Amino acid sequence: MKISILFTKRKGFNIPSWFFRLIERSEFSHAVILLDTPEGPLVYESNIKGVHPLPLYDFVKNNILIKSITLNPNDDQAMTIKNRIYELLGVNYPILAMIGAFIARVTGSIKNIFADGDKTEYCSEFVFDVLDQPYDLKGYLAEIDGPKKLYEILKPLEDKGL
Fold it and tell me: How many whole angstroms separate alpha carbon 8 and alpha carbon 40?
């Protein structure tokens, strides 16, 4: 099984996407997981609708792919990834925790005053929470860091073929 992590931005002028890119100093503002399924390629993402799947075809209608990383998990890692995705399906998007993450990034804090663990998931937090156990990710603060930092942490895994 291959898993792709897509780093995207919204099509057209989208204020939240623009703001996230500005804060991150990044060309992308969103991170999602792409899996091939018997029903076709599905994107698993967290946005204002919470954590949910949607067909890749529908996702690309509103998003522009900027970067991607492909991972080749072994069977145990793949099972852990799938199980974690299914555990997080339906979890809400964290408006308040996002505000806390912005405050932490702007002030240089390592604490999100509105952190709530797995009660809510924003996009890169969701991707991190899915991949952390099977890949033992280090250096990412799930309740503070965004897609750019996640990309920087995941990119070496692709380069090593892990």
Answer: 20
Query: How many residues does this entry show for the chain?
Result: 162
Amino acid residing at 160? K
Residues 6+ apart with CB under 8 A from 38: none
Tell me what the mean pLDDT of segment 103-125 comes to. Answer: 86
Run of H or E residues at 152: helix 147-159
The model carries a pTM of: 0.91
Q: Which domains, and CATH codes, for the chain?
A: 3-156 (3.90.1720.10)
pLDDT digits (tens, 9 = 90+) for 127-151: 999 999 999 999 898 888 899 999 9
Whether residue 95 contacts residue 50, with contact meaning beta carbons closer than 8 Å, is answered with no
Closest to 94 (Cα-Cα) out of 72, 116, 63, 78: 116
Distance, in Å, from the CA atom of 106 to the CA atom of 85, rounded to the nearest integer, reads 30
Averaged pLDDT for residues 101-128? 87
